[in-house]
Amino acid sequence: MLKFEGDQLMSNVLASPLIALPTQCTANGTMYLDMLDPSDPSRHSFVGITESTSQVFSTAAISDLHDITIIGVSVSPSLFGIMVQASKGNNSLQDQGSRRGDSRFFIARFDLSGLYKGSVDLPLVGSVIRFAIFPSGEFLVMSLDTGQISPKLTILNADGEVLHVVKNPNLLDQTTSIESNGVASSTEATDLLGSILLLPFKEDILMWRAGSVGPITAIQNSGSEHEIPIATPDGYVLSDIVPSSQRLIVHLRPENAKVGTALNLSEYAYYEVNPSDGNLISKLLLRDRSIGTIGCEHDGDYISFHSDKNERLIRSVSR
After folding, report:
1. CATH architecture label of 5-318
2. How far is CA 99 from CA 94, 103, 109, 318, in A?
3. For 286-304, what is the mean pLDDT?
4. Taking a C-beta distance cutoff of 8 angstroms, is the pair 316, 302 a contact?
5. What is the pLDDT of residues 206-229, one digit of tens each?
6. How confident is the model at residue 154 (pLDDT cuts 50, 70, 90)?
7. What is the model's pTM?
């Protein structure tokens, strides 16, 4: 049974009630949070948290792009990446005027100390939905060709050059569903694909659809893939996956849970899964259901986060 203790108050970090899941973690147990402003969810703040320190990644440091819209984040052993839609150039009025309407997709790169390292221009057609960074440094990008309403998984190198296009049956199933339901709107297609999530795991990137019973697809940087069929208990569906460098830990929710209603955390469940066959190894029992959200697993430690009444971020560990 997991007992969370040793609350660490991150006094310089204000928590938001809106935090994107899954969280991101590196192999040393640093937890990275993407916190959204409740009054304006388009505004993000990014912070990395260790046992004793915190590191902010400021979008104000992105000096070579302007008119920035945040798509998502991912982290590797040496890189913190923010996927953005933006225009190239600095933020001067003259430069904005000369490049108005030239909006493309970029990955804004930071090292793990928070220093901005420049952006990578992505040569992709359509809209970018998700991305993740392989531990080896390549990018996996899920995009939608809005002209053909066709989803695509692309692997690019660190310079943004296309290496592989992944032929993935899950995404093809999405396209079939879109066509069979007569959905002609790229906006509706984007919403359907928005339920597909990506997370680095060991040397691969895992892909799954939130609200499904599986499978989870493991994608390699070579473009090959294999499916992990999850032995999901009756009445439960996948919610998200807890980041871990070695263990596959799934977070399940009741199939009939309604979006937008108060969460009954006692009905949610965490399981460790055998990554080779998808069988459940063990259920993680939580002694205290008020610990917040489990954000990472590292060397047998489960790291959670929540906030106090003053909206300050608190980190707890179960050992």
Report:
1. 6 Propeller (2.120)
2. 9, 8, 22, 51
3. 75
4. no
5. 999 988 998 999 999 999 999 999
6. very high
7. 0.85
- Residue with the two structure tokens 């980190």: 315
As given in the structure block, the two tokens for residue 121 are 């221009």
Residue with tokens 């069988």: 279
The pair of structure tokens assigned to 44 is: 């993000």
DSSP state, 98? H
DSSP three-state, residue 78: coil
Please answer whether residues 106 and 86 qualify as being in contact, where contact means their C-beta atoms are separated by less than 8 angstroms. Answer: yes
Q: How far apart are CA 75 and CA 60, in angstroms?
A: 19
Would you say the C-alpha torsion 127, 141, 107, 81 has a positive or negative sign?
positive
Question: Which of 192, 218, 196 is closest to 208 using CA atoms?
Answer: 196
**Strand 248-254 with 236-242, pairing:** antiparallel
Helices (H), ranges, 121-164: none
Integer Cα distance of 160 and 107 in angstroms: 9
Domain map (residue ranges) of the chain: 5-318
Residue 60: count other Cβ atoms within 10 Å of its Cβ.
8
The answer to whether residues 20 and 304 touch, using CB atoms and an 8 Å cutoff, is no
- Map residue 155 onto helix, strand or coil: strand
Distance separating alpha carbons of residues 296 and 183, to the nearest angstrom = 37
Q: Considering only CA atoms, which of 114, 209, 138, 221 is closest in space to residue 169?
A: 209
Give the helix ranges, DSSP H, for 111-262.
169-180, 186-193
162-219 pLDDT, tens per residue?
A: 999 998 666 556 554 555 454 445 566 666 777 889 999 999 999 999 889 989 999 9
Please provide the average confidence, as pLDDT, over all residues in the chain.
82
Cβ neighbour number for residue 103 with a 10 Å cutoff: 16
Q: Burial code of 238-272, b = ≥16 C-beta within 10 A, e = fewer?
A: bbbbbbbbebbbbbbbeeeeeeeeeeeeeebbbbb
Provide the pLDDT confidence category of residue 292 given band limits of 50, 70 and 90: low
Q: With the C-alpha atoms ordered 87, 41, 129, 248, is the resulting torsion angle positive or negative? A: positive
